[in-house]
Amino acid sequence: MKNIITTIAVLTFCLGSYAQQTALRLTDYSNYKIFSGSTLTISDSGRFVWSENRGGDYETDNINSLLSDSKEQLQFNSTGVITNGSRYFVTYNPDNSIATTINMQWDGTVYNNSVRDSLTYDVYGNQTISKEELWNAGVWELNFITIDSFDSNNHRVKRLQQQWISGAWVNSALVNYTYNAAGKQTLSEIFQWSSGAWQNAQKDVRTYDSNNNVLTQTLYSGSGSTWTEYRRYSNQYDANNNQTQYVIYYWMSGAWKEQARYVFSYNTANLMTQRIFQNYTTGWVNSATNIYIYNTAGKRLTDITQYWRAGAWENTTQLVNSYSADNYLTTEKTQGWDGTTWNDSTLSTYTRNTDNQRTYILGQKSVSGIWNTTAESFFYYENYTTATGINDVIQVNNIKAYPNPFTINTAITFEMEQAGNITFSIYDIAGILIKQENAYYPSGSHQWLWDGNRTSGNNVSAGVYFIALQSNGQQQTQKLIKTQ
Length: 484
Description:
Blueprint: E1 18-34, E2 40-49, E3 70-76, E4 82-92, E5 98-106, E6 111-121, E7 127-136, E8 139-150, E9 156-165, E10 168-179, E11 185-194, E12 197-208, E13 214-223, E14 226-237, E15 243-252, E16 255-266, E17 272-280, E18 284-294, E19 300-309, E20 312-323, E21 329-337, E22 342-352, E23 358-367, E24 370-389, E25 396-402, E26 410-416, E27 420-428, E28 433-441, E29 444-450, E30 463-471, E31 474-482
Antiparallel strand pairs: 1-2, 1-24, 2-3, 3-4, 4-5, 5-6, 6-7, 7-8, 8-9, 9-10, 10-11, 11-12, 12-13, 13-14, 14-15, 15-16, 16-17, 17-18, 18-19, 19-20, 20-21, 21-22, 22-23, 23-24, 25-26, 26-29, 27-28, 27-30, 30-31
């Protein structure tokens, strides 16, 4: 790989008593694509620098959300000139919780400091303060602060956000949370500071069934001291707690009106086999469906998309996957339906090392039945010795996001084998950290809600995002899709 990235200083953190094992961690990647003609040219690249016992890889962690001690990501134009670049530095506390993050941006000549976040925690590991500073005229200046309060069960009950204006903290937003006996959020109320008083902004009310599945979610908009309903979501579940129906309502003329719904089907292994989307007019009308086929290991082989036309389902596209003998993804192929047969469209082929980590991705497009190379990606790793706390191993499993895609907010559900601290980090498609929280959870099943807002309280636009759940240096990620 060409040395197109300058060396980044290594930041270190303290280790206690740890057991050790050897693994591989990602150090560099580079992506190539065709800007014009048929020549592959580098489009973006990245380098990750890790402290001694920290690591991550491309397979289990989205590349944009990898929290190494430092990382650098570059974007290039068709002539190989850097058009955008960012550096990201992280320091950690002895318990592996994040202490500070610093983001730097490329101005065409050099890197400049941009944003610094400093995090504070309580004795239970709950993130209580997130302070944001902006770089201005060679110094860090206070900009924004988020203060969280927790109850005796370590549930967040209050969030206060303030802006630094003219040498003082000025109220910006306030959120109050309420929970049921099972620890599920039943109410959140968001207020905005205006004219020296808190004004209603948005309210979220939820109900649950006896298995703690969300039955209804009702959203209210606020004005002054009043609340007005505007959106409701309702859910149904089968005996295995699989979601079978998701209905969207809107408020009109003093009543809830159906707008759209998803209907889900599952096989005996509780894998989703079909998702149907319907609109409501004078009744439910089919719109689109996805049909899913799996292998015996539960890996998805085929995802067929169909649209409802002239009273029947009509094929449009399908995604076909293949796997190695040990069920690692080897190819992803898209095909289009011409009314008679499936025609190849794109193909991604994955090459792996002996640890089954991706080292190479070949992207191709079918033209007149011939596969033409359109993109290549290279990934490089190094050996390192992991450090796992002997008495502090925390496993986070079964991470799911619901709804996903989502329009307002999405709930991240997960299971913990034992109590511990979890850091939730939201990244945009460019890998920029836009929100981060830390909280302590007992063992068992839990839920964390993302309201679709940045740390500043501003709502994000429609697009692809990633959430990373981190605990004791281990990380798992989930892709999120926000729609209009």
